[in-house]
Design a protein that fits this description.
Elements lengths: L4 H10 L9 E4 L4 E3 L13 E4 L2 H6 L3 E2 L19 H11 L2 H4 L2 H8 L3 H11 L4 H19 L4 H7 L5 H12 L3 H7 L12 E7 L6 H10 L6 E4 L2 E8 L2 E9 L5 E8 L5 H11 L6 H8 L3 H9 L11 H10 L5 H15 L18 H4 L11 H15 L11 H9 L6 H11 L11 H6 L9 H8 L6 H10 L1
Parallel strand pairs: 2-4
Antiparallel strand pairs: 1-2, 1-3, 5-9, 6-7, 7-8, 8-9
Helix pairs in contact: 3-7, 7-9, 15-18, 15-20, 19-20
Length: 483
């Protein structure tokens, strides 16, 4: 990825939070690298070099700053100058792809050759996929050291290291200190932990961020027994791999960040869990870059001026989003919530918590819904058959929601299933996969928002106009819905 030195220099001198995580500042005189918002005295221009990623700065022999903590920077968004293949590879790596398998497996999932994937990473990220994965794991371990009371052994496993020896070696190479020594230094900054496997994280984002709109979106669609919103905090039950429990998300007391509290049955899956929450609340978005494109359309410019921090609400699990989308066809949001609550009550495993009596179920998996009679839930028989067919296809491994597939192929495979049209498939891609260019063009609300003059625009006209919004058509849809 090519960085503009003049823009980067202005951003770091202004400590502009909109550029946080988009690049890192290597300070040659001290041998460290910082976020552009680092509170330390800015070094002289001749002593710095800009890097597109923390991994690239690490590969150049620099160590992370212990003051601005690069491990807490917002993640690089998918559109930050990288190819779609690299963006999807990054997501899979954060979900543990290189822990479970090798580079050849990752390349196969992405539909490219191993050599080509290495070349793309070198071009756009500045390092190899394995080096990127190692840096990500080590930085996440540093975050766990500073923000949780997990033991060093638990942190090593939660960060994807197979052994304490490998963890200590990687950590010492990156920070020049052992994990235990660095934890002693950060003792005063560690979050309070009230129970086993209860951790609190600070998740940074780039402003602006319309938190009330995001929270309102989730509150209106909260599935009874599975999730709820109370006093400005979002709560829900979660299952990820072999780990289960509750997450709570609120706006942090200070700074541009959300506060995630996770009370889980184990700590091994913390890294993919945090990545899911970041994508669920769209914390990696670069709203400045998105608005630069969308505001060229006068109608969207007016809508986005009213809600400049409007983001793309995601979902905890893509399959859950798919069930939501099908259930909500041609009925109100309130009606869909009621039916989804019935599905969870019938097919979802029980959950009990004295702290969260409102939470009683986990949302059922494809395997748990497969074969379950949904007609008594209060939906039309054909819609119930669509959900059961979707669950069967996912449970049998015939349909995957992994991010490696292209948007076009994903839409094509979904619409090949009975009862799933383009609108439903595009909605699933938007919220389930976080695809920034997914666009439900046939949506009535979008047509109404674009209605000018005597006639409402047709599908062809909407698609033609939306071409200028690429690759952020999903954000355009959100803006039009709010308009």
């Amino acid at each position: 990825m090519r960085l503009n030195p003049q823009i980067c220099d202005r951003a770091r001198l202004a400590r502009d939070p909109r550029f946080d995580g988009l690049f890192f500042v290597g300070v040659l005189s001290t041998g460290i690298y910082c976020r552009p918002i680092c509170p330390a005295r800015p070094p002289k221009r001749e002593n710095i070099v800009f890097h597109p990623s923390a991994a690239a700065a690490s590969a150049a022999g620099l160590r992370p700053c212990l003051r601005c903590r690069p491990e807490s920077a917002p993640g690089s968004p998918a559109w930050n100058g990288t190819s779609t293949t690299v963006a999807r590879a990054m997501t899979l790596i954060r979900q543990g792809a290189l822990v479970e398998g090798g580079l050849d497996d990752l390349a196969a999932k992405l539909g490219v050759g191993e050599r080509h994937l290495r070349r793309l990473f070198q071009e756009h990220v500045g390092v190899s996929p394995k080096r990127f994965a190692l840096t990500e794991r080590t930085l996440f371990a540093k975050k766990l050291l500073g923000e949780t009371a997990l033991s060093v052994t638990e942190i090593a496993l939660a960060s994807g290291f197979g052994s304490i020896r490998r963890f200590n070696a990687a950590f010492n190479k990156l920070y020049g200190k052992t994990p235990s020594a660095l934890r002693r230094r950060d003792t005063n900054s560690r979050a309070a932990v009230n129970a086993l496997c209860r951790s609190t994280f600070t998740l940074s984002y780039r402003p602006p961020f319309d938190w009330p709109s995001m929270l309102g979106f989730f509150q209106a669609r909260a599935i009874p027994g599975v999730e709820y919103v109370s006093d400005g905090v979002y709560h829900r039950t979660v299952r990820i791999n072999g780990t289960s429990g509750v997450i709570s998300v609120a706006r942090a007391a200070e700074g541009h960040a959300l506060r995630l509290t996770a009370a889980l049955s184990g700590s091994r899956d913390l890294m993919p869990l945090v990545d899911r929450v970041r994508r669920m609340f769209d914390l990696n978005a670069n709203m400045t870059a998105i608005h630069d494109v969308l505001c060229e359309d006068p109608l969207l410019a007016a809508a986005l001026r009213k809600t400049p921090g409007l983001r793309l609400p995601g979902g905890w699990d893509p399959f859950e989003v798919a069930v939501r989308a099908v259930t909500g066809q041609q009925i109100s949001v309130k009606g869909a919530r009621t039916i989804l609550g019935r599905i969870a009550a019938k097919a979802g495993p029980r959950f009990e918590s004295a702290e969260h009596p409102q939470l009683t179920r986990y949302f059922p998996s494809a395997e748990e819904i497969n074969g379950c009679d949904l007609i008594p839930m209060g939906m039309p028989a054909r819609r119930a058959q669509t959900i059961q067919g979707l669950a069967r296809t996912v449970a049998n491994g015939e349909l995957s929601f992994r991010v490696h597939d292209s948007l076009e192929n994903f839409i094509g495979r979904l619409t090949a299933l009975p009862g799933i049209g383009d609108w439903t498939a595009q909605y699933i891609a938007m919220r389930g996969l976080g695809e920034p260019d997914a666009f439900p063009a046939s949506d009535l609300g979008i047509a109404k928002a674009l209605h000018q003059g005597e006639r409402r625009p047709g599908l062809k006209q909407i698609l033609q106009r939306a071409e200028t919004w690429r690759p952020w058509r999903a954000y355009a849809a959100m803006g039009l819905w709010h308009a």
